[in-house]
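Retry 2 of 3 after timeout on previous attempt. Resubmitting structure tokens to design endpoint.
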């Protein structure tokens, strides 16, 4: 495959973007931009037992991939690294390993709970949680922001929605970190630890379902267990556990990362921080710019189900295709001065529509509206209760070629009366 592509004068991706060493400081945006401008669709050779893959860097080309699941399948997993066969074998698989129509049938079980009208009803609960979190640190004059604020907010909100007991939240959070950032030695000893954590999350979710059958509650877990799919079937405990896996990852990861690096950008741009303090009506626009400027999930994988012409290149059946969401969000053909952080960008450009932070097509992020709500609330609380927010030192990035976020960010601040 590799020789054939080279002989056909296929453009080769500049640098190996699968190389973890490139991600010690987050997404390598300069290298990604060079590829986007020079080779929007290009081939990257594999190594360490992994086959090569295509990289797709522009919004127009990745939309073709994401919106055509019959041609570009999600069934082999969303990551560049191949998912172990045992994780995708059999009838029962996670939502992020499904294609339509199965994916649509399962997703409709929770679609109503994540519509904007339903999410809006959660705002008082989210606001109360956010204020409780800030209450816990406001008198200290500083904190490690990731573990004190950015993580507890989505964790507690998601736990509240799903009915996860308070005493289990730390365990669920640890498993989520281990699974999502298994390449970072601070979170896992090996990549296989990540898959063990994944299995543990599924097992925990199945146990949560069994508990809810005995003790129904007014939460999403009970709603899902009582709902029926198109054929009239209800979820088994295992099927709920697999669903739970996606809900907890989507519920925590995006919001945690965006909260931390969003505050980082506002610290770097104190005038914009003050703009939010003086005019809270700007916060929704600021949230969209935060989500655009640094995608919490850098890329997604699809697998070609047939030969297909994409961006002038022939994708062969069975080829891995990586779409770079982080690149789409800084595509010069879509956004003016894309490397500039500007909370007023939404007044000139359709950031929410054109950014690809939450993907596109049938796998568009189920929790996008919930993530936006939490970010709006936490930045409203921060800007109304803190001032003179400063970094103690440079944040530390989690080491991952998939997730882009901080694992440590120490700040100081002054409380506002």
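Retry 2 succeeded. Sequence:
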């Amino acid at each position: 495959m590799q020789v054939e592509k080279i002989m056909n004068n296929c453009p080769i991706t500049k640098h190996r973007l699968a190389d973890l060493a490139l991600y010690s400081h987050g997404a390598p945006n300069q290298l990604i931009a060079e590829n986007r401008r020079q080779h929007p669709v290009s081939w990257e050779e594999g190594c360490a037992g992994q086959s090569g893959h295509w990289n797709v860097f522009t919004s127009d080309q990745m939309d073709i991939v994401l919106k055509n699941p019959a041609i570009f399948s999600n069934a082999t997993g969303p990551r560049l690294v191949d998912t172990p066969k045992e994780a995708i074998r059999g009838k029962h698989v996670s939502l992020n390993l499904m294609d339509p129509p199965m994916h649509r049938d399962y997703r409709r079980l929770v679609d109503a709970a994540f519509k904007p009208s339903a999410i809006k009803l959660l705002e008082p609960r989210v606001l109360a949680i956010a204020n409780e979190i800030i209450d816990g640190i406001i008198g200290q004059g500083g904190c490690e922001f990731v573990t004190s604020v950015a993580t507890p907010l989505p964790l507690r909100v998601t736990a509240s929605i799903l009915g996860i007991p308070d005493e289990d939240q730390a365990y669920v959070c640890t498993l989520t970190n281990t699974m999502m950032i298994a390449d970072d030695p601070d979170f896992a000893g090996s990549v296989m630890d990540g898959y063990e954590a994944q299995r543990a999350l599924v097992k925990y979710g199945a146990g949560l379902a069994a508990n809810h059958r005995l003790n129904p509650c007014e939460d999403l877990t009970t709603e899902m267990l009582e709902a029926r799919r198109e054929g009239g079937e209800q979820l088994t405990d295992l099927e709920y556990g697999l669903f739970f896996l996606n809900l907890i990852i989507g519920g925590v990861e995006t919001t945690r990362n965006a909260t931390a690096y969003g505050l980082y950008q506002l610290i770097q741009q104190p005038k914009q921080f003050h703009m939010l303090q003086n005019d809270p009506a700007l916060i929704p626009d600021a949230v969209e710019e935060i989500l655009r400027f640094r995608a919490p999930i850098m890329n997604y994988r699809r697998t070609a189900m047939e030969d297909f012409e994409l961006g002038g290149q022939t994708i062969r059946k069975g080829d891995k295709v990586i779409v770079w969401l982080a690149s789409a969000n800084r595509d010069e053909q879509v956004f003016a001065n894309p490397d500039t952080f500007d909370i007023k960008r939404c007044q000139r450009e359709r950031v929410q529509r054109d950014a690809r932070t939450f993907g596109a097509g049938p796998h568009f992020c189920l929790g996008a509206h919930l993530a936006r709500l939490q970010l709006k609330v936490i930045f409203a609380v921060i800007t109304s209760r803190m001032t003179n927010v400063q970094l103690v030192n440079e944040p530390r990035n989690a080491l991952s070629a998939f997730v882009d976020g901080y694992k440590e960010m120490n700040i100081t601040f002054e409380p506002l009366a």
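Attempt log closed. Residues 1-7 have pLDDT under 50 and may be disordered.
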